[in-house]
Amino acid sequence: MAASPSSTLVSPPRVDLDGEDTSTLVRGTPEWLRETLTSTAGEMARLARVILAMVVDGYGLSHRSDEIVAATDTNFRMLRYHNDNTRTSSSDGQPAVGLAAHVDGSYLTVLFQNDVDGFEMRTGDGGEWARVHSPGPDSLLVVAGQPLVVSWSNGRLHAPVHRVAVGGREDRLSCGVFLLPRRNLVVDAPPELVTVDAPRRFRPFEYSDYLRFKHAGGNGEDVLDRFAGI
Ligand SMILES: O=C(O)CCC(=O)C(=O)O
Ligand SMILES: [Fe+2]
């Protein structure tokens, strides 16, 4: 059996960067770190919005990008995966897992990590796990989430199943900005992306309803199809 995620994952509450109070981000941390975290999180959120606008533009919908980007929220999360050499792998040969396999419920997620790899994506439909090696400290990883698959690509983009494997010599540290549709936004494919050759793949839904369903219905790749697939 792989180790339970909760035994290795230190997950502070997510922080709403667009809300009034970001103090929970850094409660009890020194001023210099507070400033670093706040500005890092803010820049990552800005980048996430630029990338969303690029995706929207890329589908020929640049006239909509301001409106789409304005209807987003972000939150920031810091994660520490404790090194534990005793659990390098489980009895079935699988690596110990620090964060269980899931798909993201954000439009997109921008991740930054220290030099301890562990992020893995499942290739194709239920295929092998592939380790994503960080090319260096100047790099960020961008992961598409399910709302992006629905609304800004009508199924053309893929939201990968991913997880974090642990077992190295040092702790893995990562932080991520999650760019989310506003809770009451209706997530839907724009008419421009629905054609005879590419019929509508998902029914429109309110984002908060999707989140509720996802939290109750698990993290599997099929959540979106079960919830809104046509
Ligand atoms: O910590 C990581 O590298 C991945 C985190 C992640 O996938 C998530 O929080 O959704
Ligand atoms: Fe994720």
From TrEMBL:
Keywords tagged on the record: Iron, Metal-binding, Oxidoreductase
Signal peptide: none
Residue span, Fe2OG dioxygenase domain: 71-181
InterPro entries, per the entry: IPNS-like_FE2OG_OXY, IPNS-like_sf, Iron_ascorbate_oxido_reductase, Oxoglu/Fe-dep_dioxygenase_dom
Matches recorded under Pfam families: 2OG-FeII_Oxy (PF03171)
Polar residues biased stretches: 1-10
Gene3D superfamilies membership: B-lactam Antibiotic, Isopenicillin N Synthase, Chain
Region (Disordered): 1-23
GO MF annotation: an example: metal ion binding
Cited PANTHER family: 2-OXOGLUTARATE (2OG) AND FE(II)-DEPENDENT OXYGENASE SUPERFAMILY PROTEIN-RELATED
Family, as annotated: Belongs to the iron/ascorbate-dependent oxidoreductase family.
Official protein name in the record: Fe2OG dioxygenase domain-containing protein
